[in-house]
Automatic annotation (TrEMBL):
Belongs to the CoaE family. It comes from Methylomusa anaerophila. This is Dephospho-CoA kinase. One of its GO terms (biological process) is coenzyme A biosynthetic process. The gene is coaE. Its EC number is 2.7.1.24. InterPro entries: Depp_CoAkinase (IPR001977), P-loop_NTPase (IPR027417). CDD domains: DPCK. Catalyzes the phosphorylation of the 3'-hydroxyl group of dephosphocoenzyme A to form coenzyme A.
Length: 198
């Protein structure tokens, strides 16, 4: 069994690659999904976040407005670290539970899909690290199109993460997602064959 860490920068196409791996038979542990689940209304993490950041981050239903919270923390590194200190240990705990479930269900490849895999030190949890790469201009263009935000906001979000060029230093496999889906799929299939033969 292989535990694979999949990461990349915002708008690099990590979710696209994650979907391809799922189609090939991998079990996906989605860190963003776990982050939403642990911070659902009324849960201990939700309470802690609201206590720290105030009721202003809540939507009319009392759920955390992730966009509003994101605007706060992406603009302030201290606040971002405080949020990560609240959420990361609980996301990690939930990820371990998912891994155990996937093992019990007989999956041969388990993918931890996490944008902050390296920043959070999770690369130690996996046997192989895949980084989805695009150049910064492509990343900016895709982020502007996807999130309909200003250039300044896009750059703030990109700069809040470790640069992709730096993430590559941790990678066992680099998937270049700047040349179209067919090209990306060919790279994923090739790297998939390699791990299936280990």
């Amino acid at each position: 069994m292989v535990i694979l860490g999949l990461t990349g920068g915002i708008a690099s196409g990590k979710s696209t690659v994650s979907g391809m791996l799922k189609d090939m038979g991998a079990y996906i542990v989605d860190a963003d999904k776990l982050a939403r689940e642990i911070a659902a209304k009324g849960k201990p993490t939700w309470r802690e976040i609201v206590n720290r950041f105030g009721d202003g981050i809540l939507d009319p239903n009392g759920e955390i407005d992730r966009k509003r919270l994101g605007q706060m923390v992406f603009a302030d590194e201290v606040l971002r670290k405080e949020l990560e200190n609240i959420t990361h240990p609980r996301i990690k705990e939930a990820a371990y539970a998912e891994i155990e479930k996937a093992k019990a269900d007989g999956y041969k490849v388990i993918v931890i899909d996490a944008p902050l895999l390296i920043e959070a030190g999770w690369e130690k949890m996996v046997q192989t690290v895949w980084v989805v790469y695009v150049d910064e201009n492509t990343q900016i263009t895709r982020l502007l199109e996807r999130d309909k935000i200003s250039l300044a906001a896009a750059l703030t979000r990109i700069r809040a993460q470790m640069p992709l060029k730096e993430k590559i230093n941790y990678a066992d496999v680099v998937i270049d997602n700047s040349k179209g889906l067919d090209n990306t799929l060919a790279q994923v299939m090739s790297a998939w064959r390699d791990i299936k033969h280990e």
